[in-house]
TrEMBL record:
InterPro entries listed in its UniProt record: TM_pro_TauE-like, TSUP/Inactive_protease-like
Membrane-crossing segments per the record: 12-39, 85-104, 110-131, 171-199, 205-227, 239-260, 272-293
Record localization: Cell membrane; Membrane
Pfam family, one: TauE
Record-given protein name: Probable membrane transporter protein
Keywords from the UniProt entry: Cell membrane, Membrane, Transmembrane, Transmembrane helix
Family recorded in the similarity comment: Belongs to the 4-toluene sulfonate uptake permease (TSUP) (TC 2.A.102) family.
Organism expressing this protein natively: Falsiruegeria litorea R37
GO annotation, cellular component aspect: plasma membrane
Amino acid sequence: MQIYLPIAEVSVNAFLLLGLGGMVGILSGMFGVGGGFLMTPLLFFIGIPPAVAVATEANQIVASSFSGVLAHFRRKTVDLKMGTVLLVGGLTGAALGVVVFNYLKSLGQVDLLVKLCYVVFLGIIGSLMFVESLNAIRKARGAAGGAPAKRRQRTWVHALPMKMRFRTSGLYISVIPPLIVGVFVGILSAIMGVGGGFIMVPAMIYLLGMPTKVVVGTSLFQIIFVTGFTTMLHATTNYTVDVVLAVLLLVGGVIGAQIGTRIGVKMKAEQLRVLLALMVLVVCGKLALDLLLQPTELYSLGAAGGH
């Protein structure tokens, strides 16, 4: 069933979009990521212009994350205090990111920047997560009969001023690292159309030392507001939010998030991280190939036509 997307100016199969939304919703519920880092490149692959994909995907993430957060609220695995600190940073970063995005759009460089950002970030994050997750699995097996492994304590993060107590996470740390993480994720949200969970989740576990079970819900809580704000800014300054595309992705995403949350509870944290890392690396590889292969074909055609 082909459907015409007015803002993207392309025709796409409606069931394909519903399926993509559902798949990314499942990931959202399982891993605590908005799923935009996978969905936005998938939209590139089916022919949606990057500027439209980024702005519209931010919209879809709001719904799938909201659906996932409700499930986590019921389990009391959301640290609202930490989420609020991350959110202050996130909103600031999102506003900065939209300014940069609009400037690059006026130069005509936004498509290339978005794709390059994806290749760089997905490559780095995917590799680091994959190595770390394998180490965690190995340690878990080694410690199966011995004493339980202790979580890392006392890093440079604990030495910083402006400390605050986060009871749900069992932490007493400075608000500076969460604020910086929030700003960084907000900028990425605006430029790449992502919730930033693929950076937020590892940062919360390894940098802030939060327990994995609280990280997912807290990450989703922050993502809802930052991506909602980003969508609003894109819609009012760029006019690149495609409502038809957003609705189809939304429906799939909300259903998928509920399924994903149930699957996530049944799997070990280390296994979840290995799966997520592999997915990130696969998408990164496909995007890198497209960047390397496509221009040669396009420009040779243009040259042949005396363009």
